[in-house]
Write a structure and sequence with these properties.
heterotrimer, A mainly alpha (304), B alpha/beta (422), C mainly alpha (324), A: 72% helix, C: 324 residues, mainly alpha, 15 helices, 74% helix
Chain lengths: 304, 422, 324
C-alpha cells in the first residue's frame, strides 16, 4: 500500500467507506435473515427455499416496473400482502403436512420446493439477468468523501423498521406471545388451547412476507435471475445461527457482523477469501457457542 | 417369492427399455451434437450462442447442407461440467453423432471434450477460451476461437498502440490495474495481458491483481477502495455479466475515476445486458469482441463480404438485433466447420484432420472477418481470428478498432467524470 | 433370506448380465451411473439412515476423493488408486471432525454445519490455484490400463457393480450386527441408548467416519469415470442433497433403499433430460420442476420410500423397526 495513503484523511475515508458499505450491506442481509430466523425459531424448520422467495420478490418488482411502471417502493406494501398470501398458500399446500414430521422430511420438502421454484422461474422467464433502474437506483448521497446509495439506505431503514416492528409484535402483542409460547413448548401450548396450526401458518406467512419484500427492495441493486436466491441464502443461514435461533435483534446484529467480515475481510485478505472467513466464523460459533452470539445457551441441544 | 422376483425383474426391464428407446435420424439428414448451457447462470448467453448456430445452419442448408445432406442438430443442455461430460457421452452413444460442438463457456469445454474424445468423435469448440484446451495432446479436438491468451494479447495491443498515444503517454508511462473473475477465462486473459503489458511494453502494474467469484460477490467496495488508492490510468477488468453490472454501479457511487476500462469477451461488459443495465452511463467502456455496428464490410475480401452480410441479415431476422458476441462466435465457428466438411467430404476423423490442417485463408475471408489457419494442436491461430475493440456508445457496442475495419472512432478518451457520461 | 435380499440379489444379477446382453454404450453408461449413485447413497445412508445423523455436506468427502484421485493422476502422474487411498485417509480425518460436530449439535444445526464444511472445502479448492488449479478444475487424463483406471465401459460396469455389492453388504452387516443394533438405538433414542451403556458418542463418530470413507472412494472412481473435476460441482450442495435423496426415496435406513432410489431417480433424470433437453431453451428446466415436486410428495406421503411402498403392496416383508 502506498505509504502516502496512510496519512490522515485518506485513511479515514477508506475506513468510513468500508464502514458505510458494511452497514448498508448488513441491512440487506438482515431483511433476508429476519424471515428465516422467525420460521426457524418458531417452527423449528430450516426453510431451504427461502432464497427462492427472495428471487420471486425480485421478479415481481422487475415485472411491476417494466410492465406497469410501478416503482419498487410503491410495490413494497403490495408485495408484503402478496407474499403474506403466498406464505399462507405454501404453508397449506406444502408445509402443514410435514410440520410434525422428522427433520429430513422437512429439509427435503423445502429442498424440493427450492428446486421446483428455481426452475419454474427459469421456464417462465428464461435465464437472462434482469435489471431495471428506477430513479433512486442512481441517486448517491454523499457525506464528506463517503458515498451512500439511496436504494441501499432505504433497504437498511426498512430492515431496521421491520426488525423493530416484529420485535415489538413478538414481545408485546397477544399473538406474539402465543407464538413464543408455542416455540418454547409445543405440548404445553396445545394443552393451553393454543391453535398451533394457526400459529405456524402465521409464522410462515410473516417469514415469507419479509423475504419477498426483501426481494422487492434489493431488486434495483442486483439483477434478477432464477438462481438469484442462492447468492444470498447461505449467508442468511450464517446470520441466523450467529444471531441465535429466533432472535430478531440477533439477526440484525448478525447481519452487520457478517457484512463486516465480508467487507473488511476482502479489503485485508483480498476478495477471494472472504467467504472462507465467514464460514469459519460460522463453524466456530457452531462449535463454541452454538446458540449464537446472542442466543440462549443450550438452545441448540434442546434439539428440535 | 418367485412372484415378487418377477415383479422386480419386470420393473427393471421397463426402466431399461425406457432408456433404450433409440432415436433414428432420417436419411438425407446429417446430425451433429450441440452442447449449450441453456439453464443455469450462463443460460442467457448459451441461448444466444445456440441462436448463432441455428442461423448459420439455415444458411448452410440453403446452400445444400453438408456432404449432400441437410444439417440438423441434436441439442443438449449442459449447465455444469458434469452434465457436459454425461451429455456429450449421451449424444455420441445414444444419438450416434460423429461431431460434437459447443459449449460457450470455459468451464464446460474441458469436460465435454474429454468425454467426446473417449468415444473417438470429433470435438469442435467455437467459443471457450481456456488456454489449456489445446495443450492436452488430444486428437480430433479443435477450436475455432482464439484462446484467452489471444484476448490478452489483443487488449494490450489496443492499449499500447491506440489508447496510449491518445492519452498522450508512452506505453511504459501507463499505470494499469487488473481485476478479474476467477475462472480459466478470466485468469487466462488477465495473466497473458499482464505478461505482455510488462514484458513487451513496460507498463506499470499498480495495485495487486484481484480475482473473485463472479456469482457470489455481492459487494465490490473493498476492491474499489483499493483501486482508488492505486490510481490506475487503465482498468483491465474481465467479468461476467452480473459482476460487471454490480461493479460499475458501485464504481459510480464511490466515484472511482479511471481513464479507460478495457474488457474482452462476449459476456460482462461485452454483453447486451450490461448496456441495458447502465444505458448511457456505459459510454466509453471498451470490450474486445467480434465486429459490431460500423464494421466496414468492404474491408473484407469479396467472399467474406457476401457471407458476412448474409449472416447479419439472418441474425437480424431471427432475433431482431444486430449480431451479438455469442452469435458471432457460434456462427463463425459453424461456418468454418462447413468449410472443413466440404473439403473432407466425410466425417472420418483422419480425413477431417487433413482438411482442417489444409485450410489457409487470410483475414477477411469469412464471417466476422476471420481467416483460418490451424496449428497442429487444433487451435485456430490468434492472428487469423481477427478480434476487434468495441466501445459502448449511446446504448450500442460499436466497432472502433482496428480503424481500417470500421467507420466509427473511439470517443471519450480519457473517460469524463461520472456526471458527464450521458 | 428375506425378500429384500432376494430383490437385491436379483437386481445385482441383472446388472451383471447386462453387458453380456446389451451392447449399447449409453445403457451401460447409465448402468454405471446408477450403480455409483446407489453406492454413494448407501454411503450416506450409513450415517444418515443407520446412525440418524443427517448430513447435507457429504459432497465434502466426495470432493476429497475426487480431487485425490484426479490430482494424483494429473499432477503427480501416479496411479489414481493411490489417490483413492489418500482420499480415504483424508476423508477419515474429515469424517472424524464432522463426527465430533455431531456430538455437539443436533438436527438442523448439525445439517447446517455440514453444509458449511462442504462450502469451506469448495472455496479452498477453487482458490488454491497452485495446488488444485483453482476454479478451472482438473481434467483427468485417460490412459488405458488397470493401474491408471483407464477402463472400458464393460470393465467399469463390473467395477461399479463390485463396489455396489460391497456397500450393500456393509449396510446389511450394520443391520444385523451388534454395532448395528447399537446404532439403531442411538438413532431412535440417544438418551435411552446411553442409559443402556452404549457408547453413543463413539458410535456416532465411527458411523460418520465410515460413511465418509465410503463416499470418498466412490468420489475417486467417479472422477476417473467422468474425466473432469470441477470444484463448484464436486463440493456442491446439490450433490449432497442427491445422495440423501436417493436414500430417502428408496427407503432410508434400509440396505436396498439407496439402490432402489438410485434406479428410479437416475433413470428418471436421464429419461427426462433426453426428452426435454434442447427444446426451447429453458424448457430443460421442466424436468427439475418435476424432480422437486416428486421429492415433496414422496417425502410427505411415502416417507419410508419405495421399500415402504413395496412392503405395503405385499412385495417384501415389512421391516420391524421402520426408522422415522
Amino acid at each position: 500500500m502506498d505509504p502516502a495513503a496512510r496519512l490522515g484523511s485518506a485513511q479515514i475515508d477508506v475506513v468510513a467507506q468500508l464502514a458505510v458499505s458494511t452497514v448498508l450491506l448488513g441491512g440487506i442481509y438482515a431483511l433476508i435473515a429476519i424471515g428465516l430466523t422467525l420460521i426457524f425459531g418458531i417452527m423449528r424448520v430450516v426453510n431451504f427455499a427461502h432464497g427462492e422467495f427472495l428471487m420471486l420478490g425480485m421478479y415481481l418488482a422487475f415485472f411491476a416496473f417494466t410492465l406497469r411502471s410501478i416503482d419498487p417502493w410503491v410495490m413494497l406494501p403490495i408485495a408484503l400482502v402478496i407474499f403474506f398470501g403466498v406464505g399462507l398458500l405454501v404453508y397449506a399446500l406444502v408445509m402443514r403436512g410435514v410440520i410434525h414430521a422428522s427433520h429430513n422430511v422437512q429439509i427435503f420438502t423445502t429442498v424440493g420446493l427450492s428446486t421446483a421454484l428455481q426452475n419454474v422461474a427459469l421456464v417462465l422467464w428464461s435465464g437472462d439477468y434482469q435489471l431495471f433502474r428506477p430513479w433512486h437506483a442512481s441517486v448517491v448521497l454523499r457525506l464528506g468523501n463517503t458515498a451512500f446509495n439511496l436504494s441501499q439506505v432505504v433497504a437498511f431503514a426498512v430492515a431496521v423498521l421491520l426488525t423493530a416492528g416484529l420485535f415489538a409484535f413478538m414481545k408485546w402483542s397477544h399473538t406474539g406471545r402465543v407464538m413464543r409460547a408455542t416455540a418454547q413448548d409445543l405440548d404445553a401450548a396445545t394443552l393451553m388451547g393454543i391453535d398451533t396450526d394457526r400459529v405456524y401458518r402465521l409464522t410462515f406467512a410473516i417469514g415469507i412476507a419479509c423475504v419477498g419484500t426483501a426481494g422487492v427492495l434489493v431488486s434495483p441493486l442486483y439483477a434478477a435471475y432464477p438462481q438469484a436466491g442462492l447468492q444470498f441464502v447461505t449467508l442468511a443461514y450464517v446470520v441466523v445461527v450467529l444471531g441465535g435461533l429466533g432472535d430478531m435483534a440477533g439477526a440484525l446484529a448478525g447481519s452487520v457482523i457478517v457484512a463486516g467480515v465480508e467487507v473488511a475481510g476482502s479489503y485485508v485478505f483480498g476478495t477471494a477469501w472472504k467467504e472462507v472467513l465467514y464460514f469459519i466464523l460460522f463453524i466456530g460459533v457452531l462449535v463454541f457457542r452454538p446458540a449464537g452470539l446472542f442466543g440462549q445457551r443450550g438452545a441448540e441441544s434442546l434439539g428440535v | 417369492m418367485p412372484r415378487r422376483l418377477l415383479v422386480i425383474l419386470v420393473a427393471s426391464l421397463v426402466a431399461v427399455s425406457a432408456l433404450a428407446a433409440v432415436t433414428h435420424g432420417q436419411s438425407g439428414e446429417y446430425k451433429i451434437g450441440v452442447l449449450e448451457p441453456l439453464t443455469g447462470p450462463l443460460a442467457g448467453e448459451g441461448k444466444r450462442h445456440l441462436e448463432g448456430y441455428e442461423a448459420v445452419r439455415d444458411m448452410i442448408n440453403e446452400r445444400g447442407g453438408v456432404m449432400g445432406k441437410k444439417l440438423v442438430f441434436t441439442v443438449a443442455d449442459v449447465p455444469d461440467p458434469t452434465a457436459a461430460a454425461t451429455e456429450a457421452t449421451r449424444l455420441v452413444t445414444r444419438e450416434g453423432v460423429k461431431i460434437v460442438t459447443g459449449t460457450y463457456s470455459s468451464r464446460l469445454c474441458g469436460a465435454a471434450s474429454e468425454a467426446a474424445v473417449r468415444h473417438n468423435v470429433i470435438y469442435w469448440e467455437t467459443s471457450c477460451v481456456d488456454p489449456r484446451f489445446n495443450k492436452r495432446g488430444l486428437k480430433n479436438v479443435y477450436r475455432t476461437e482464439i484462446d484467452a491468451t489471444g484476448f490478452g494479447w489483443y487488449n494490450i495491443e489496443f492499449i499500447a498502440k491506440h489508447l496510449a498515444p491518445r492519452l498522450g503517454k508512452k506505453p511504459n508511462e501507463l499505470k494499469i490495474a487488473f481485476l478479474s473473475e476467477d475462472s480459466s477465462y478470466g485468469q487466462g486473459v488477465t495473466e497473458s495481458a499482464r505478461q505482455r503489458a510488462k514484458q513487451e511494453f513496460g507498463m506499470q502494474e499498480v495495485g495487486s491483481v484481484e480475482y473473485y467469484k463472479f456469482d457470489t460477490t455481492n459487494d465490490f467496495t473493498s476492491v474499489i477502495v483499493k483501486l482508488k488508492q492505486a490510481q490506475p490510468d487503465i482498468l483491465h477488468h474481465i467479468a461476467y455479466t452480473n459482476d460487471s453490472i454490480l461493479f460499475y454501479r458501485q464504481a459510480k457511487e464511490q466515484n472511482l475515476q479511471v481513464k479507460a476500462v478495457v474488457h474482452a469477451g462476449a459476456t460482462g461488459y461485452g454483453a447486451a445486458d450490461f448496456g441495458k443495465a447502465h444505458g448511457n452511463e456505459a459510454n466509453g467502456v471498451f470490450a474486445l469482441l467480434e465486429p459490431g455496428p460500423g464494421f466496414r464490410v468492404e474491408a473484407l475480401k469479396p467472399d467474406g463480404q457476401k457471407i458476412e452480410k448474409e449472416f447479419r441479415d439472418a441474425i437480424q431476422k431471427k432475433t431482431g438485433s444486430y449480431p451479438l458476441g455469442a452469435h458471432q462466435l457460434a456462427g463463425g465457428g459453424l461456418w468454418l466447420l462447413k468449410l472443413v466438411l466440404d473439403r473432407a467430404k466425410s466425417d472420418d476423423p483422419d480425413k477431417v484432420r487433413d482438411a482442417v490442417m489444409s485450410l489457409d485463408l487470410p483475414v477477411g475471408s469469412m464471417i466476422n472477418g476471420w481467416g483460418v489457419k490451424f496449428s497442429p494442436e487444433g487451435q485456430n491461430a490468434n492472428e487469423r481470428v481477427q478480434h476487434y475493440m468495441l466501445q459502448w456508445q449511446n446504448g450500442q457496442l460499436v466497432t472502433v478498432w482496428p480503424e481500417e475495419f470500421t467507420t466509427n472512432r473511439a470517443k471519450w478518451i480519457p473517460l469524463p467524470a461520472w456526471d458527464q457520461r450521458k | 433370506m428375506s425378500a429384500d435380499r432376494w430383490v437385491a440379489a436379483a437386481l445385482f444379477a441383472v446388472a451383471a448380465l447386462m453387458p453380456v446382453v446389451v451392447r449399447d454404450s449409453f445403457i451401460l453408461d447409465s448402468l454405471i451411473l446408477i450403480l455409483l449413485w446407489g453406492a454413494l447413497s448407501s454411503a450416506w445412508n450409513v450415517a444418515g439412515g443407520y446412525a440418524g445423523q443427517v448430513s447435507l455436506g457429504h459432497a465434502a468427502f466426495f470432493g476429497i476423493g475426487a480431487y485425490a484421485a484426479a490430482l494424483m493422476s494429473a499432477r503427480y502422474h501416479q496411479s489414481p488408486w493411490l489417490g483413492l487411498v489418500a482420499g480415504i485417509a483424508l476423508s477419515l480425518v474429515a469424517g472424524g471432525a464432522i463426527g465430533f460436530l455431531s456430538n455437539r449439535l443436533k438436527g438442523p444445526y448439525f445439517a447446517l454445519s455440514t453444509i458449511a464444511f462442504a462450502e469451506v472445502l469448495k472455496i479452498i479448492a477453487s482458490r488454491w490455484r497452485g495446488f488444485t488449479s483453482g476454479s478451472e478444475g482438473v481434467p483427468v487424463p485417460f490412459r488405458p490400463g488397470f493401474w491408471t483406471m483407464g477402463l472400458t465401459h464393460v470393465q467399469w460396469v463390473y467395477l461399479a457393480l463390485g463396489v455396489a455389492i460391497l456397500y450393500y453388504l456393509v449396510q446389511v452387516y450394520l443391520e444385523r450386527s451388534r454395532i448395528g443394533y447399537q446404532l439403531a438405538g442411538v438413532r431412535e433414542d440417544e438418551d435411552a441408548a446411553e442409559a443402556l451403556g452404549i457408547a453413543t458418542r463413539r458410535r456416532k463418530v465411527q458411523a460418520v467416519m465410515l460413511s465418509a470413507a465410503l463416499t470418498s472412494m466412490c468420489g475417486s472412481f467417479w472422477a476417473q469415470y467422468i474425466g473432469f473435476v470441477d470444484p463448484i460441482h464436486v463440493f456442491s450442495i446439490d450433490l449432497s442433497v442427491r445422495f440423501a435423496l436417493n436414500s430417502i426415496i428408496g427407503g432410508i435406513g434400509t440396505a436396498l433403499g439407496p439402490f432402489l432410489g438410485s434406479i428410479l431417480i437416475t433413470s428418471l433424470e436421464t429419461y427426462l433430460r433426453a426428452t426435454f433437453s434442447g427444446m426451447k431453451a429453458g424448457f430443460g428446466g421442466i424436468y427439475l420442476i418435476i424432480y422437486g415436486v416428486v421429492l415433496i410428495l414422496v417425502v410427505r406421503f411415502a416417507p419410508e420410500g419405495l421399500t415402504g411402498i413395496a412392503s405395503r403392496l405385499g412385495l417384501t416383508a415389512r421391516k420391524a423397526d421402520a426408522p422415522a
